[in-house]
Amino acid sequence: MDLVIGPLDLPAHVDEALAVQAVAFGLGADEVVVRRQIVLRHMAYPGARALGATEDGRLVGFVYGMPNDRTHWWSTVVEPYLRGRGNDHWLDDSFVITELHVHPAYQNRGLGRALITTITDSASEPRSILSAIDTDSPARGLYHSLGYQDLARQVLFPSAPRPYAVMGAPLPLRRRQGDRTDFHRPVPPG
User: Fold this and answer.
1) What percentage of residues in the chain have a pLDDT greater than 90?
2) HSE-up of residue 159 (Cα within 13 Å, Cβ side)
3) Nearest to 45 by CA among 121, 96, 115
4) What contacts 1, CB < 8 A, 6 or more positions away?
5) Which of 50, 96, 153, 157 has a CA 20 to 30 Å removed from the CA of 57?
């Protein structure tokens, strides 16, 4: 297995990425159609960037994010929850992880950890924020191990069937002894 992590032209590979997300997150066809438009809109925002994990040219995981902007939809939804806990300052000077998904066949190999640490290592912001389904899960365990703390819980997004937690961490993200770092990472152009 030769996994490669590198820059991803997400608009050009949106359907591949959403196929990974659909399997990893359990999305139906209608949800994929909606998310496709969201991803394309997000990637037009200033500072948005994506990384992909490929094996033999096939996308098996991806992450994308951007500098947070309080006027973006996500921020307007989470802001009252954060303000209620005295944490709304986290919306400023933060790099938001918008999506992180790894195909189930490639999970538990350190790939999600490598994707999120690699994308945040290049952030100029001093901290990172994200939202995750508010339940004990491998994803939340990963985020906690990287230094993310709960900033607000039981956050309700319109049309989302389950509540989310908003999490934040100072950058760079915490590393653990033995973290896998041997994924081949091509040098980005430029």
Assistant:
1) 88
2) 3
3) 96
4) 55
5) 96
Average pLDDT value over all residues in the chain? 93
The gap from C-alpha 137 to its chain's centroid, in whole angstroms, comes to 15
Output the pTM of the full model. Answer: 0.92
CA nearest to 61, candidates 120, 96, 34, 21: 21
Residue type for position 78: V
Share of the chain above pLDDT 70, in %: 93
pLDDT of residue 159: 82
Selection from 174, 176, 175, 157 nearest residue 165 by Cα? 157
Among candidate residues 31, 41, 18, the one with its CA nearest the CA of residue 160: 31
pLDDT at 168 over 80: yes
